[in-house]
User: What shape does this take?
Amino acid sequence: MAKKKAKKKAKAKKAPVLDMLLVGSKTKAALKDKGVNVSADTLDALNMVVYWYIDQAAARAGANGRKTVRGHDVLSGM
Assistant: This one.
């Protein structure tokens, strides 16, 4: 009788780890100054937003034939 092959378990893909672009203590202090509490996942979520803005600004600069990102490339997404 032949042995059964072991099934390989599908590994869950992890989201890529992105470097933190924010200064945690300064960001938390700014939120605390607004009178709100800061949960553990807040900095990660804000960091993802910053990366999104970077992607959008770079795409806008590229669409305009530039390699230089300007301030209005960032602000145009707001």
In short: The chain has three helices and no strands. Residues 39-78 form one domain.
